[in-house]
User: Fold this.
Amino acid sequence: MVAQAAPKIRRNPRFPSSMTPDSHRAKPRLRPLPNLIFASRWLQLPLYVGLIVAQGVYVFHFWVELVHLVEAAFGHQPAVDLLVKSVGYKPAAGEAIVKLNETLIMLVVLGLIDVVMISNLLIMVIVGGYETFVSRMDLEGHPDQPEWLSHVNASVLKVKLATAIIGISSIHLLKTFINADNYSEKTLLWQTLIHVAFLASAMAIAATDRILAGTSGNGGKH
Assistant:
């Protein structure tokens, strides 16, 4: 008996070999009202564009402060005066600041770090918020895709923002303690309490997120 050859399967040229007709099925159209509600997410786009403009302002401020710091390092007295005024540094009675000292340099550098951390916070809000609430950016496989963006969602974004705010608050608190002679005890106490409140809030957000994640995981097992 001669074995018969298997019949050839004719492929539909409209569908590639890796696709099936089901995968090409037309997406259901939304009704007008749900479509309008869903499209309203694009109203957030001008907000994120505005944050990009704010990011540019922070970059400009960073470079202005950096230029003043470099000029002051070379003994430019007007630059020293501008830095003293910008960081709120007040020398001891009878002391004239004619050049940079360690405390002034530290306050200026902490101010620059503060600008960078706020800029990082803006990036998290712009990129993460757009990806989460507006539209996908299709960055999968892109060599410059941020590591945290691959698993970002509303809960993860809240925890990361809370962590960034704690870092910014820590910089402000450190600047205050370095320049503590120019602040009252009441101001120092309130800044410390506010920082502790930020810490407690971040811990509460992280604990709530963990509890919800555990509840979701247990619910999926049943």
In short: The helical segments are 32-39, 45-73, 77-87, 102-134, 154-178, 185-221. The mean pLDDT is 79.
